[in-house]
């Protein structure tokens, strides 16, 4: 008699974007276009997911043999995921400018592509993306993901570099899909954060995590502490404070969790709270994470979930980028925890 049947009134991502709770861009024309763009991104995530799942079986593991503009060795799945996204976003007819981690230059949609099998229409949106995040984890079967951020071209613009070299606070939507024990797509259109889980049998993302809110504080810190030798004073002092709480304080030492895929570390942080960081240090003067397609989308999601995202001294979403592959230091997570970290920078 305590039987509770599974829901038969499921909310798919498509249904949710079309009908419910979404405060899409004010003009209705724009909102229709954004819906189509999001549908296209949803499909790319399913396509990438299906390749990730069978990568070991179809020779998709390992290096592709090229280096990207950041000097990283590309994995086969980096290259494949990038092609999937570029093709789908071009085909959507809703994109004007694309910026990918794996392409040196921005792509301007509408320019004739040699070797392309279809004509592409130009749209009003710019999509910045990390087609596959966590490449170093691929071959070990550890969680990886796709990150994206979306801008609407400026009034009167036909889509140029200035439409993507903008502070993250001007994004109209951002999200990621994590390929983990399940595929989870997490999305904001500036009206809170929702999480969807892929039901592989029906091929739809289903709303499973409505209105994600970060706890005010967490008990986890997530940082590559192996870089400690290079860290600056405020980071070292903060880490010390959470590992060795002052005697007599009610605080317990924090737990360490670091996956090394930003998508997975941020996903856990959004759900459990705590702090994730990739600081600048004596070796990397701007840190490692890329502003446009890693720091901005994740900071937008964090703020929309009630958290804080900072370089340590500045709100990330306020930064004006000058180059598409620019890096910046990142700390994000629960408000209380990130504010504690910031207090060590202020003491300097
Ligand atoms: P990508 O695989 O897209 O190049 O990104 C890797 C990033 C990010 O996923 C992660 O947070 C970070 O690299 C991990 O870096 P370390 O191995 O230096 O900790
Ligand atoms: Mn990379
Ligand atoms: Mn990445
Ligand atoms: Mn990547």
Task: Give structural notes.
The chain has 348 residues and is α+β, with helices and mostly antiparallel strands. The chain is built from seven helices and 15 strands. Helix 2 (28-53) packs antiparallel against helix 3 (76-92) and helix 4 crosses helix 7. The protein is globular, with a radius of gyration of 20 Å. The N and C termini lie far apart (62 Å). One manganese (II) ion binds next to strand 5. The site of 2,5-anhydro-1,6-di-O-phosphono-D-glucitol (AHG) has 13 residues, from strand 5. Its cofactor is Mg(2+). It is found in: Cytoplasm. Its main location: cytoplasm. InterPro entries: FBPase_C_dom, FBPase_class-1, FBPase_N, FBPtase, Fructose_bisphosphatase_AS.
Give the SSE map.
Elements: H1 13-19, H2 28-53, E1 63-67, E2 73-75, H3 76-92, E3 95-100, E4 107-108, E5 125-133, E6 144-152, E7 173-179, E8 183-188, E9 193-199, E10 204-209, E11 220-222, H4 233-243, E12 255-256, H5 262-272, E13 275-278, H6 291-304, E14 308-310, E15 330-333, H7 335-346
Parallel strand pairs: 3-5, 11-12, 11-13
Antiparallel strand pairs: 1-2, 3-4, 5-6, 6-7, 7-8, 8-9, 9-10, 13-15, 14-15
Bound molecules: 2,5-anhydro-1,6-di-O-phosphono-D-glucitol (AHG) and manganese (II) ion (3 copies).
The site of one manganese (II) ion (MN) has 3 residues, from loops.
Catalytic activity: beta-D-fructose 1,6-bisphosphate + H2O = beta-D-fructose 6-phosphate + phosphate
Pathway: Carbohydrate biosynthesis
Subcellular location: Cytoplasm
